[in-house]
Amino acid sequence: MSDQELRVSKIRNGTVVDHIAAGQALNVLAILGIDADSGETVSVGMRVPSDRLGSKDIVKVEGRELSQDEVDVLSLIAPAATINIVREFDVVEKHRVERPTVVTGVLSCPNHNCITTEDEPVESRFDVLDDGIRCQYCETIVREDFADHIAVE
Amino acid sequence: MRHDHIISAKGLSRDGIVEVLDRAADIAADPSAWGDRHEGRLLGLCFFEPSTRTKMSFTAAIKRLGGDIVDMGPVDSSSVKKGESLADTVRVVEGYADALVLRHPSEGSARMASEFVDVPLINAGDGAGQHPTQTLLDLYTIRESAGLDDLTIGIMGDLKYGRTVHSLAHALTNFDVRQHFVSPESLRLPRSVRYDLHEEGAQIREHETLDPVLSELDVLYVTRIQRERFPDESEYRAVAGEYQIDAETLEDARDDLTVMHPLPRVDEIAYDVDATDHAAYFQQAQNGVPVRMALLDLLLGGDR
Fold this sequence. Notes:
The structure holds 2 protein chains of 2 kinds.
Chain A (H helix, E strand, L loop, with lengths): L13 E8 L3 H7 L10 E9 L3 E9 L5 H5 L9 E6 L2 E7 L5 E3 L20 E5 L2 E4 L5 E2 L11
Antiparallel strand pairs in A: 1-3, 1-4, 2-3, 4-5, 6-7, 7-8, 8-9
Chain B lengths: L13 H16 L12 E6 L5 H12 L3 E4 L14 H8 L5 E6 L4 H6 L6 E6 L5 H14 L5 E6 L6 H10 L4 E6 L8 H9 L3 E5 L3 H4 L4 E4 L10 H8 L17 E3 L20 H6 L1 H12 L5
Parallel strand pairs in B: 1-2, 1-3, 3-4, 5-6, 5-8, 6-7, 8-9
Helix pairs in contact in B: 1-5, 1-11, 2-11, 5-6, 5-11
């Protein structure tokens, strides 16, 4: 099944995040800060057949072009994701997510005794390791289930 | 040594450690010569948790250098009680002092606080995180008794929550040291510390009992296993009993074994060990003053 056959329509202007690991689309939205109140028109395809991944998720965000910094953090949960910037129905930019060296905000530290989980004027900050992430403050290492630690406002 | 802040043992290099220990040895040899070294300088004490040894030895250290303290006092009687953030508290107190000492129950608190102040900030314990100045006095004690290279050390007790252990284990990777960790399975070193030791290429082994390694050790570093780490009293008693030593236990050890403990102890080292030549824990506590004097001297510009 090609993208043209998907039950979601093409978008005019915005960003298509494609090749998301199946089942991670809602976590992608959470990382991008998109929820019921954020106003964007969003289409989500989950477990769509894919030649490359077997099945994949896909997210289309209308009227918003995501920056490289915004999408790089997606690499932690969707390392194969591709980002398509669309203008007037044409893909004008296409790139892959790149693994960042540091992730600021977005994820919350799973250590409930970490200072970043308290009411202090500081954002969470993680170093990205080869096989996990590490809180720069309390040094806790998270190796799996990053999506469980996405900060929820 | 050119550290602005002392946050974690990871920030201590071999050269930096040796510089502090050498200066501490100079101070211990002739303490009175340092009495006016930092006259008029003030050390701000921010202790959000109770402390006896650390707080008193920092106080003694700055006073023996000719300076004085400004003390936030207990949390109950401070503005923290009114809901002030740690970031605000340290920003205020830095205006009153030339350096800050912080103890706080949350991991990462000292690192965060250091981002808000310009004066040197010293971590005096952040939750189950780090306690780097305890490590410096531990290293001083080890160097005095057994030397820091070609050393075999056993570290026993609560390795998971014991911040003195986390700092010491990391600092020892700067030296030629074989480290044996002895603890119940539930209180093993945390993943983050094992990760760092592995990254540093440290020679470490983990054990559930002391017996197999006791006779190899130059130093045995004992820590307290706390009651609150266990779901019930009986489980705690069963486990804690396995990690207590007495004079009889030490009959199997080398004659020159040094026994250390960051104190306070409860019953993990029996009183009958105090009278043996092995016991170094009171000397260790006493070393806190010259070592903290040395550190403060370097941080406050002792080279000028």
